[in-house]
Amino acid sequence: MKDIKVLAIETSCDETAAAVVQNGRTVLSNIISTQIDLHKKYGGVVPEIASRMHVEKINLVIEEALKEAKLTLDEIDVIGVTYGPGLVGALLVGVVAAKAIAFAKDKPLVGVHHIEGHIAANYISHQELEPPFLCLVVSGGHTHLVYVKDYTTYEIMGKTRDDAAGEAYDKVARAIGLTYPGGPKVDRLAKEGNKEAIKFPRAMLDAGYDFSFSGVKSAVLNYVNACNMKGETINTKDVAAAFQSSVVDVLVSKTMSLAKEKNIQTIALAGGVAANNGLREEMTKAAQKNRMKLYYPELILCTDNAAMIGCAAYYDYMKGNRAQMNLNAVPNLPLGKK
Ligand code: KG4
Ligand code: ZN
Predict the structure, then answer these.
(1) Of the residues 191, 273, 302, 308, which should be mutated to test ligand 1's pocket, given the most ligand atoms within 8 Å of the CB?
(2) Cα–Cα distance for residue pair 324/116, rounded to 1 Å
(3) pLDDT category, 41, cuts 50, 70, 90?
(4) Where do the domains of the chain lie, and which CATH numbers do they carry?
(5) Could you tell me if the CB of 85 is within 6 A of ligand 1?
(6) Mean pLDDT, to the nearest integer, of 134-149?
(7) What is the pTM of this model?
(8) Between vectors from CA 215 to CA 209 and to CA 217, what angle results, nearest 5°?
(9) 118 Cα nearest atom in ligand 1
C-alpha cells in the first residue's frame, strides 16, 4: 500500500506548529514555535497576541516541517489541521493556511479536533497501542475522561465542571510567584515539598466521573492570602506538593474506578498535564496494582504539537472524513461529532 504523508498544522493556543507524519505513526518532522515568552509577562495567553504571532510564524514553521521531512508540498498526500476547540483567532490562522495549501495543491483536507490529537499522541509514542482504551485528557483547557472506542469514535465519560486541571496548576503557580505556564514549575517544586504539610480539599462530586478543580484552587489562594495577611512566609514547596497531591488523587481515583466499573484494562494519559511527574507516578502505581496497562506520550508530545494532529488526521482520512473549503474554526467544538 502507498505511504500516506500528512502535513499537519496546529495553532489552537500559543504554539505555532507544523509536522509531517507518515502512515499515522511515523513522525518525519515536528516543528513547534512557542510563544510562551511573549505571554509570560501577562500571566497567561493573550488571544490577540497569539493570533498575530501565528500569522507571523505559520509559513516559516510549515516550510521548516517540509524541509526537515525532506519533502515538497507535491509529495504530501493529505493536509490536516486543528479546527477546534481553542482560541478562535488563533485557530483561524491554521485553518486558513491549511485551506490555502489544500486548494492550491488540490490535496484532501481533514479537520481535527484538538483533544482527538492529544489522545493520538499516544499512538506515536506506543506503536503497539490500539483502541479500545480509556484516556484521561488533562490539559490547560480540558479535563476529560474519554472512552476511545476506535480510532475515530469517542465517548465522553466525565469532564470538569469548572477549571481544567492545567488551568488550576497555572493559577496556583501564579499565586505562589511562578511565571506562566506554571504547571511544570509546580511539578518540580512539589518533588521537594511535604504533601502532608497542608490539607487541601479533594472534590469527588459524589463519586461520579465529573471533575471540579475550582475548590482546590480557591483553597490554595485563600491559604496564600491568609499567610500574607499574617506576615508568614509561605513554604512554596509544601503548597505545591499538597496541591499536586490533591489534584492527582482525584484524577487517579476517578480514572481507576471508571476503568474498573467498565472493565477496561488499558488506560492512557494525554495533554499537557500528562507530563506531570506526580500524575505519572501515582497512575503507574495504581495501574500496576489493578493489573492494567498504562500509556502516556513522551514529553514533547504531551503539550501542544502538530505531530499528534497528523496522527489523528491520518485515521480520520482513512475513515473517509474530509473537510471542505468552507471549513471554519469552531472554538467550542464538541468531541466525537463529525
Ligand atoms: O495540552 P497543552 O499544551 O495545551 C492545552 O491544550 O491546553 O497543556 C498546557 C497545560 C498548561 O496548563 C501547563 O501548565 C500544563 O499543561 N503542564 C503541566 C506540566 N506540563 C505542562 N502541568 C502540570 N505538570 C506538568 N509537568
Ligand atoms: Zn492542547
Answers:
(1) 273
(2) 19
(3) confident
(4) 5-120+301-319 (3.30.420.40), 130-297 (3.30.420.40)
(5) no
(6) 96
(7) 0.96
(8) 115
(9) 1
66-81: average pLDDT = 98
- Ligand that lies nearest to the alpha carbon of residue 297, given by its number in the listed order: 1
pLDDT for 337 equals: 61
Matching residue, cell 510567584: 177
Q: Does residue 86 line the site of ligand 1, with CB under 6 A?
A: no
Per-residue pLDDT, averaged over 61-90, amounts to 98
- Ligand 1: atom nearest CA of 15 is 3
Among 35, 303, 308, which is best to mutate for testing ligand 1, by the most ligand atoms less than 8 A from CB? 303
Q: What is the pLDDT of residues 194-230, one digit of tens each?
A: 999 999 999 876 778 999 999 999 999 999 999 999 9
From the alpha carbon of 187, which atom of ligand 1 is closest? 24
Cβ neighbours for 182, distance < 8 A, ≥ 6 positions apart: 169, 170, 171, 172, 173, 174
- pLDDT greater than 90 at residue 246: yes
Pairwise CA distance, residues 136 & 119, whole Å = 9
- C-alpha cell, 168: 488550576
Centre of ligand 2 to C-alpha 274, Å, is 11
